[in-house]
Amino acid sequence: MIALKANPGALQIDLAQTALLIIDMQRDFMEPGGFGDSLGNDVSRLRVAIEPCRRVLRAARAKGMLVIHTREGHRPDLSDAPPAKVARGKPSSRIGAPGPMGRILVRGEPGHGIIEELAPLDNEPVVDKPGKGAFYQTDLELMLRNRRIANLLVCGVTTEVCVHTTVREANDRGYICVVLADCCASYFPEFHATGLAMIAAQGGIFGWVSSSDDLMSALSTSTA
Ligand code: TIU
Q1: Which terminus in the chain has less CB density within 10 A, N or C?
Q2: What are the domain boundaries of the chain?
């Protein structure tokens, strides 16, 4: 068990029932020439989350926790990409269009891959998702159920889009979500701050918000 400082209140968490969920730390969102860039964003803004994520990932592996990575993207034939999603953005840089990291937001292309700093190990599941939420049209829930997971430590990008959507989906399914604030980032600092505030508001309407530092402190004094 660990005792974790969090907003709106401290939590007791059984690590055996806890997974680390790292959302979409892909080149497509974090490097120039990918999907995030094609939407007109300053992708350098997301890099602040890399080191905190790396620290948390290392700690989770050391504790033997289940680590699950997600990637947003589509089949090469785009059959799983809603036309309404593809139609948004400049025609020359839409989903499926060629870019410097391969076809934008397409599975198997260099841009779709998780950044090297957070590369999954062979024994860590990678969930490919066609939407913003990690539960939509994926087998994530089945994997969590099979492992008796009750709590999710959530990291990744972007705070108000894929992290938020996933936390909302998880919360409705009964999971206790703890979002690690400095392990998430947004192209819009104000959305990051407000997105986190929304999670913890109203007594934790969607979950809890903590930090990599608070997690490290809690892990260093864990009782099991
Ligand atoms: N655009 C944006 O902020 N995010 C996404 O499109 N996907 C994720 O957040 N992964």
Answers
A1: C
A2: 2-220
